[in-house]
Protein backbone atom coordinates (compact mmCIF):
# COMPACT_ATOMS: atom_id res chain seq x y z
CA UNK A 1 0.00 0.00 0.00
CA UNK A 2 1.54 3.38 -0.98
CA UNK A 3 2.40 5.82 1.75
CA UNK A 4 0.32 8.91 2.25
CA UNK A 5 1.80 12.39 2.13
CA UNK A 6 1.66 12.63 5.93
CA UNK A 7 3.50 9.36 6.36
CA UNK A 8 6.13 10.48 3.90
CA UNK A 9 6.59 13.82 5.70
CA UNK A 10 6.83 12.13 9.10
CA UNK A 11 9.42 9.68 7.78
CA UNK A 12 11.45 12.51 6.28
CA UNK A 13 11.19 14.48 9.54
CA UNK A 14 12.41 11.51 11.59
CA UNK A 15 15.30 10.97 9.21
CA UNK A 16 16.22 14.65 9.41
CA UNK A 17 16.09 14.63 13.23
CA UNK A 18 18.20 11.47 13.44
CA UNK A 19 20.80 13.00 11.11
CA UNK A 20 20.99 16.17 13.19
CA UNK A 21 21.27 14.24 16.47
CA UNK A 22 24.03 12.00 15.10
CA UNK A 23 25.92 15.03 13.80
CA UNK A 24 25.62 16.82 17.14
CA UNK A 25 26.63 13.76 19.19
CA UNK A 26 29.67 12.99 17.02
CA UNK A 27 30.90 16.58 17.08
CA UNK A 28 30.37 16.92 20.84
CA UNK A 29 32.09 13.57 21.42
CA UNK A 30 35.20 14.87 19.66
CA UNK A 31 34.98 18.19 21.54
CA UNK A 32 34.83 16.28 24.83
CA UNK A 33 37.74 14.08 23.76
CA UNK A 34 39.89 17.14 23.15
CA UNK A 35 38.74 18.48 26.53
CA UNK A 36 39.89 15.29 28.26
CA UNK A 37 43.24 15.48 26.47
CA UNK A 38 43.68 19.08 27.58
CA UNK A 39 42.76 18.30 31.21
CA UNK A 40 45.16 15.36 31.43
CA UNK A 41 47.91 17.22 29.59
CA UNK A 42 47.68 19.94 32.24
CA UNK A 43 47.85 17.30 35.00
CA UNK A 44 50.88 15.67 33.39
CA UNK A 45 52.51 19.08 33.05
CA UNK A 46 51.96 19.75 36.76
CA UNK A 47 53.34 16.30 37.61
CA UNK A 48 56.53 16.98 35.60
CA UNK A 49 56.97 20.37 37.25
CA UNK A 50 56.65 18.78 40.68
CA UNK A 51 59.64 16.57 39.89
CA UNK A 52 61.85 19.67 39.67
CA UNK A 53 62.82 19.94 43.34
CA UNK A 54 65.18 22.33 45.10
CA UNK A 55 67.52 21.35 47.93
CA UNK A 56 67.77 23.56 50.99
CA UNK A 57 70.88 22.73 53.04
CA UNK A 58 71.02 23.37 56.79
CA UNK A 59 73.53 25.70 58.36
CA UNK A 60 75.99 23.59 60.36
CA UNK A 61 77.63 26.20 62.57
CA UNK A 62 76.47 24.35 65.70
CA UNK A 63 78.78 21.99 67.54
CA UNK A 64 78.31 18.57 65.87
CA UNK A 65 78.73 16.91 69.29
CA UNK A 66 75.55 18.60 70.50
CA UNK A 67 73.30 16.45 68.34
CA UNK A 68 70.11 17.16 70.33
CA UNK A 69 70.46 20.92 69.90
CA UNK A 70 71.33 20.53 66.22
CA UNK A 71 68.33 18.28 65.59
CA UNK A 72 65.97 20.70 67.35
CA UNK A 73 67.33 23.62 65.31
CA UNK A 74 66.85 21.67 62.08
CA UNK A 75 63.31 20.71 63.04
CA UNK A 76 62.43 24.39 63.58
CA UNK A 77 63.93 25.32 60.21
CA UNK A 78 62.11 22.42 58.53
CA UNK A 79 58.81 23.59 60.02
CA UNK A 80 59.36 27.13 58.69
CA UNK A 81 60.09 25.79 55.22
CA UNK A 82 56.88 23.77 55.14
CA UNK A 83 54.86 26.90 56.07
CA UNK A 84 55.90 28.77 52.92
CA UNK A 85 53.06 29.33 50.44
CA UNK A 86 55.11 28.12 47.46
CA UNK A 87 55.95 24.73 49.04
CA UNK A 88 53.75 21.79 48.08
CA UNK A 89 55.78 19.13 49.85
CA UNK A 90 58.97 19.09 51.90
CA UNK A 91 61.05 16.05 52.82
CA UNK A 92 63.73 16.06 55.51
CA UNK A 93 66.95 14.26 54.56
CA UNK A 94 69.35 13.53 57.41
CA UNK A 95 73.09 13.18 57.00
CA UNK A 96 72.77 9.40 57.14
CA UNK A 97 70.05 9.40 54.47
CA UNK A 98 72.14 11.75 52.31
CA UNK A 99 75.05 9.29 52.48
CA UNK A 100 72.80 6.39 51.45
CA UNK A 101 71.39 8.42 48.53
CA UNK A 102 74.91 9.38 47.41
CA UNK A 103 75.97 5.71 47.42
CA UNK A 104 72.97 4.77 45.28
CA UNK A 105 73.59 7.58 42.81
CA UNK A 106 77.28 6.70 42.52
CA UNK A 107 76.58 2.98 42.35
CA UNK A 108 78.82 2.22 45.34
CA UNK A 109 77.85 -0.46 47.84
CA UNK A 110 81.02 -0.57 49.91
CA UNK A 111 81.44 1.52 53.04
CA UNK A 112 85.18 2.08 52.50
CA UNK A 113 84.67 5.30 50.54
CA UNK A 114 82.57 6.94 53.25
CA UNK A 115 84.11 6.51 56.69
CA UNK A 116 81.60 9.01 58.10
CA UNK A 117 78.55 10.94 57.03
CA UNK A 118 80.19 13.78 55.11
CA UNK A 119 77.05 15.04 53.32
CA UNK A 120 75.03 17.78 55.07
CA UNK A 121 71.44 17.37 56.13
CA UNK A 122 68.94 19.05 53.83
CA UNK A 123 65.30 19.53 52.90
CA UNK A 124 64.03 18.40 49.50
CA UNK A 125 61.41 20.99 48.55
CA UNK A 126 58.74 20.27 45.95
CA UNK A 127 57.30 23.52 44.66
CA UNK A 128 53.73 24.14 43.60
CA UNK A 129 53.43 23.99 39.77
CA UNK A 130 52.63 27.70 39.44
CA UNK A 131 55.95 28.59 41.12
CA UNK A 132 58.03 26.46 38.75
CA UNK A 133 58.41 29.46 36.51
CA UNK A 134 61.70 31.06 35.39
CA UNK A 135 60.28 34.43 36.45
CA UNK A 136 59.45 33.17 39.97
CA UNK A 137 62.01 30.48 40.76
CA UNK A 138 64.80 32.95 41.60
CA UNK A 139 62.54 34.71 44.09
CA UNK A 140 61.62 31.37 45.66
CA UNK A 141 65.30 30.45 46.03
CA UNK A 142 66.03 33.83 47.63
CA UNK A 143 63.17 33.38 50.11
CA UNK A 144 64.42 29.92 51.04
CA UNK A 145 67.94 31.25 51.63
CA UNK A 146 66.52 33.95 53.89
CA UNK A 147 64.96 31.40 56.27
CA UNK A 148 67.05 31.17 59.48
CA UNK A 149 68.99 27.91 59.51
CA UNK A 150 69.31 27.53 55.74
CA UNK A 151 72.89 27.84 54.52
CA UNK A 152 72.46 27.28 50.78
CA UNK A 153 69.85 26.30 48.18
CA UNK A 154 70.67 24.16 45.15
CA UNK A 155 68.57 24.42 42.01
CA UNK A 156 69.20 23.57 38.35
CA UNK A 157 67.92 26.80 36.79
CA UNK A 158 68.59 25.80 33.18
CA UNK A 159 66.75 22.49 33.53
CA UNK A 160 63.80 24.29 35.11
CA UNK A 161 63.67 26.82 32.28
CA UNK A 162 63.89 24.15 29.56
CA UNK A 163 61.19 21.93 31.09
CA UNK A 164 58.88 24.89 31.79
CA UNK A 165 59.18 26.28 28.25
CA UNK A 166 58.69 22.88 26.58
CA UNK A 167 55.63 22.02 28.67
CA UNK A 168 54.06 25.42 28.05
CA UNK A 169 54.69 25.06 24.32
CA UNK A 170 52.94 21.67 24.26
CA UNK A 171 49.97 22.95 26.28
CA UNK A 172 49.65 25.99 24.02
CA UNK A 173 49.43 23.80 20.92
CA UNK A 174 46.87 21.49 22.54
CA UNK A 175 44.78 24.50 23.62
CA UNK A 176 45.01 26.00 20.13
CA UNK A 177 43.84 22.76 18.51
CA UNK A 178 41.01 22.48 21.06
CA UNK A 179 39.77 26.00 20.25
CA UNK A 180 40.09 25.33 16.52
CA UNK A 181 38.11 22.13 16.83
CA UNK A 182 35.44 23.93 18.88
CA UNK A 183 35.05 26.43 16.04
CA UNK A 184 34.76 23.56 13.55
CA UNK A 185 32.14 21.95 15.81
CA UNK A 186 30.11 25.16 15.84
CA UNK A 187 30.23 25.37 12.03
CA UNK A 188 29.24 21.71 11.55
CA UNK A 189 26.32 21.85 13.99
CA UNK A 190 25.17 25.15 12.48
CA UNK A 191 25.21 23.69 8.96
CA UNK A 192 23.21 20.64 10.08
CA UNK A 193 20.56 22.84 11.67
CA UNK A 194 20.41 25.18 8.67
CA UNK A 195 19.80 22.23 6.33
CA UNK A 196 17.01 21.03 8.58
CA UNK A 197 15.35 24.47 8.67
CA UNK A 198 15.91 24.89 4.93
CA UNK A 199 13.70 21.86 4.28
CA UNK A 200 10.89 23.62 6.19
CA UNK A 201 11.23 27.06 4.62
CA UNK A 202 7.90 26.83 2.78
CA UNK A 203 6.08 25.81 5.97
CA UNK A 204 7.64 28.78 7.79
CA UNK A 205 6.62 31.23 5.09
CA UNK A 206 3.12 29.74 4.81
CA UNK A 207 2.56 30.19 8.57
CA UNK A 208 3.74 33.77 8.28
CA UNK A 209 1.47 34.51 5.30
CA UNK A 210 -1.65 33.29 7.12
CA UNK A 211 -0.95 35.73 9.95
CA UNK A 212 1.11 33.80 12.51
CA UNK A 213 3.44 35.98 14.58
CA UNK A 214 7.17 35.43 14.40
CA UNK A 215 7.32 34.45 18.07
CA UNK A 216 4.63 31.82 17.52
CA UNK A 217 6.52 30.41 14.51
CA UNK A 218 9.87 30.34 16.33
CA UNK A 219 8.59 28.66 19.49
CA UNK A 220 8.16 25.05 18.19
CA UNK A 221 11.46 25.21 16.30
CA UNK A 222 13.33 26.38 19.39
CA UNK A 223 11.68 23.69 21.53
CA UNK A 224 12.63 21.01 19.00
CA UNK A 225 16.19 22.36 18.79
CA UNK A 226 16.49 22.26 22.59
CA UNK A 227 15.40 18.62 22.66
CA UNK A 228 17.70 17.64 19.80
CA UNK A 229 20.63 19.45 21.42
CA UNK A 230 20.05 17.66 24.74
CA UNK A 231 19.71 14.26 23.10
CA UNK A 232 22.83 14.80 21.01
CA UNK A 233 24.80 16.02 24.04
CA UNK A 234 23.77 13.04 26.18
CA UNK A 235 24.64 10.56 23.42
CA UNK A 236 28.01 12.27 22.94
CA UNK A 237 28.69 12.20 26.70
CA UNK A 238 27.69 8.55 26.94
CA UNK A 239 30.04 7.63 24.09
CA UNK A 240 32.81 9.74 25.62
CA UNK A 241 32.32 8.10 29.02
CA UNK A 242 32.46 4.64 27.49
CA UNK A 243 35.64 5.35 25.55
CA UNK A 244 37.28 7.02 28.55
CA UNK A 245 36.32 4.13 30.86
CA UNK A 246 37.84 1.62 28.44
CA UNK A 247 41.02 3.67 28.10
CA UNK A 248 41.52 4.19 31.84
CA UNK A 249 40.81 0.51 32.59
CA UNK A 250 43.42 -0.53 30.03
CA UNK A 251 46.19 1.67 31.43
CA UNK A 252 45.16 1.14 35.07
CA UNK A 253 44.38 4.72 36.08
CA UNK A 254 41.31 6.03 37.98
CA UNK A 255 38.26 6.76 35.83
CA UNK A 256 37.75 10.13 37.55
CA UNK A 257 40.89 11.91 38.74
CA UNK A 258 39.57 15.44 39.31
CA UNK A 259 35.80 15.57 39.78
CA UNK A 260 35.53 19.36 39.46
CA UNK A 261 37.28 19.55 36.10
CA UNK A 262 35.24 16.67 34.69
CA UNK A 263 31.99 18.26 35.86
CA UNK A 264 33.00 21.54 34.19
CA UNK A 265 33.74 19.64 30.96
CA UNK A 266 30.30 17.97 31.09
CA UNK A 267 28.57 21.33 31.51
CA UNK A 268 30.62 22.81 28.66
CA UNK A 269 29.57 19.98 26.33
CA UNK A 270 25.90 20.37 27.34
CA UNK A 271 26.09 24.14 26.90
CA UNK A 272 27.77 23.90 23.49
CA UNK A 273 25.22 21.34 22.27
CA UNK A 274 22.17 23.29 23.44
CA UNK A 275 23.39 26.83 22.74
CA UNK A 276 24.66 26.19 19.21
CA UNK A 277 21.57 24.19 18.27
CA UNK A 278 19.12 26.80 19.58
CA UNK A 279 21.11 29.78 18.25
CA UNK A 280 21.48 28.21 14.81
CA UNK A 281 17.76 27.43 14.72
CA UNK A 282 16.83 31.01 15.60
CA UNK A 283 19.14 32.53 13.00
CA UNK A 284 18.13 30.09 10.25
CA UNK A 285 14.40 30.48 10.94
CA UNK A 286 14.67 34.27 11.20
CA UNK A 287 16.35 34.37 7.81
CA UNK A 288 13.36 32.78 6.12
CA UNK A 289 10.92 34.92 8.08
CA UNK A 290 12.58 38.02 6.65
CA UNK A 291 12.85 36.70 3.09
CA UNK A 292 10.35 37.12 0.25
CA UNK A 293 8.41 34.24 -1.21
CA UNK A 294 10.38 34.36 -4.45
CA UNK A 295 13.66 34.11 -2.49
CA UNK A 296 12.67 30.71 -1.13
CA UNK A 297 13.23 29.14 -4.55
CA UNK A 298 16.79 30.51 -4.79
CA UNK A 299 18.01 30.30 -1.16
From TrEMBL:
One of its GO terms (cellular component) is plasma membrane. Residues 176-292 form the ABC3 transporter permease C-terminal domain. GO terms for biological process: cell division. It is a multi-pass membrane protein. Residues 74-153 form the FtsX extracellular domain. The chain crosses the membrane at residues 20-39, 170-193, 225-247, 262-289. It holds the Pfam family FtsX. Keywords: Cell cycle, Cell division, Cell inner membrane, Cell membrane, Membrane, Transmembrane, Transmembrane helix. Gene3D superfamilies: 3.30.70.3040. InterPro entries: ABC3_permease_C, FtsX, FtsX_ECD. Required for cell division and gliding motility. Belongs to the ABC-4 integral membrane protein family. FtsX subfamily. This is Cell division protein FtsX. It comes from Epilithonimonas bovis DSM 19482.
